Amino acid sequence: MLAVVFFSTAPNMGFDDQGVRINLVLRLVLCMDMFKNKMGKGCCRFFLFLLFFFINGGVLKAWPKGSVTRYYDFKVQTASITKLCKTSTVVTVNRMYPGPTIYAREDDRVVVKVTNLTPYNISIHWHGVRQRLTCWFDGPAYITQCPIQAGQSFKYRFTFLNQRGTLFWHAHISWLRATVHGPLIIYPKQGVSYPFEPPVEEHVIVLGEYWLRDIQDLERQVKESGGGPPGSDAYILNGHPGPLHNCSRDDVYTINVTQGKKYLLRIINAALNMEHFFGVAQHTMTVVEADGEYTKPFDTSFLMLTPGQTYNVLIKADQPIGKYYMALSPYMPAKSVPFLNKTSYAILDYVKHTKSMIPHEPILPNVNDTESVQAFADQVKNLYPNQHWSPIDVPLKIDKSLFFTIGLNVLSCNSSDPDRSCQGPNGGIFAASVNNISFRRPMVSLLNAYYNNLEGYFSTNFPDKPEKMYDFVNEAPNNIGVDTQPAIGTQVSVLEYGWAVQVIFQDTGTVGTENHPIHLHGFSFYLLGTGLGNFNSATAILNFYDPPYRNTVGVPVGGWAVIRFRADNPGVWFMHCHLDVHTTWGLSMAFLVKNGKGKMQTLPSPPPDLPLC
């Protein structure tokens, strides 16, 4: 019987050229816990032998291996796309826009071969994947890897360890994310159901922005001008702008539904620089997941998604047979920022409707309705309470407390730079910063510099708090127009392995307040609370009972957010605003999480095909 058990499970243990899968340990623990008879003792001794043999043989790898390995082939290449009366050449994956969907189950391993067939450098980030012990494959260019150069390939290898839900992947270099992105759908383990009534169908909706001009040229113009970017030419749903845009009457994404049935919509905001409202005319949405984590179900007439956020919602086709618009409109609370103030539509189409029916239109909040946005965000709670039996574990004792101001700055005009004009505020150059430090991209990857002890590429003195405390929301440190310049550098914040970390984000009004979607690589975090105005620990209401577990938080315009996470994943992890123009201007930093004890707390060596700078 023991031999049968062993051979029936051996193929799932990962006995391959990568070494033995880590769950030998898990199987040993399970064996010890479940069996008390002689066979159980024999089983335990057998697994102890295997564990001892492979550890001492040096072939137990730290890279987790999934129960099933799934292979994908991504070819980054240009494609001709006709939209808004014009044919444009854009960068895509496999000539698809949006790109191909990755499907997997919880604990599966994925290998994605990315081949760059364009003249541009490329890297791919797997947004929301926590990359446990696989930091080398996280993807942000010059943070965890050098980019994949023209004609070169790189295999990303990672495991969806204890993860399921709706995530996405996207380019993480320059502004290629505008068209290089796609869904990443992780189903529960085989035999594990959703914690809600299963839908009859699921549909993925990727929200985005579309520009008629070349996105690389647009980025170059913004850098050289010192000013801000123009708004996009259309908002799109699964690559379709909808009937209100030029030459787009038939360029409409449609979902066919049957009256009385329930559907799951997986909604991803892959937009470059714009936050969005989403709603379905005359239909209530029930939110059941945010950023790949289950939530307490709640009903809403709209969502507000920052770039980088995802929501799963249930919707019941309980209205009279007809056509109903699914609407995408902008949320822009900042003042004097150019943007496209136009709504795009997809269609929820009941079968058996009359063709002449005019679609119903939804009512969404006004473009700057921060009160509604805050009320929506406050409803997002973790499905599970913070109890001893619960899968969530909010750190209550803090080892490292950080206070990060985030916002825009203005650099003085440098007339000695012939490639840059000064079209920012007061004849200056737009910048952005965290704790008044504007991030400068290094010339090699930070992870490589750290792993190989390369000096001169970064410093480890990122400040825990701003140098000066003042009225962050309403003024600059020394009055507007006088002290708007940040320091510029490549600095990281060093965390010991296992530390419980709290970060307070505070939006600043140095140049102007704005909503900032902050994304943390390598971890999800507990969002304890958000609010408007300056953070005050005496009055801030924080949720330690059922805080949502997220990877991207919308720090409110002129407001604050508090997160906590445990630094139990060694490596260098980027944290940045997911409005790409703000990242370009420097609103980013990185955490360096040191190794712990043993292989399972130590950054593995780099893969042999890691791209070189």
UniProtKB/TrEMBL annotation:
Q: Which domain of life is it from?
A: Eukaryota
Database matches in Pfam families: Cu-oxidase, Cu-oxidase_2, Cu-oxidase_3
Q: Which GO terms describe its cellular component?
A: apoplast
Q: Where is the Plastocyanin-like domain?
A: 76-190, 201-351, 462-596
Describe cofactor binding as the record notes it: Binds 4 Cu cations per monomer.
Q: What is its EC number?
A: 1.10.3.2
Q: Which UniProt keywords apply?
A: Apoplast, Copper, Glycoprotein, Lignin degradation, Membrane, Metal-binding, Oxidoreductase, Repeat, Secreted, Transmembrane, Transmembrane helix
Q: Which cofactor does it need?
A: Cu cation
InterPro entries, per database record:
Cu-oxidase-like_N (IPR011707), Cu-oxidase_2nd (IPR001117), Cu-oxidase_C (IPR011706), Cu-oxidase_fam (IPR045087), Cu_oxidase_CS (IPR033138), Cu_oxidase_Cu_BS (IPR002355), Cupredoxin (IPR008972), CuRO_1_LCC (IPR034288)
Q: Per the UniProt entry, what are the Gene Ontology biological process annotations, in alphabetical order?
A: lignin catabolic process
Keyword match Repeat? yes
Q: Which GO terms describe its molecular function?
A: copper ion binding; hydroquinone:oxygen oxidoreductase activity
The record ties this protein, via PANTHER family, to:
LACCASE, MULTI-COPPER OXIDASE
Which family would the database say this protein is a member of? Belongs to the multicopper oxidase family.
Concerning NCBIfam families, the annotation shows: laccase
Question: Any idea what job this protein has?
Answer: Lignin degradation and detoxification of lignin-derived products.
- This one is known as Laccase
Taxonomic lineage: Eukaryota, Viridiplantae, Streptophyta, Embryophyta, Tracheophyta
Gene designation: LOC111292768
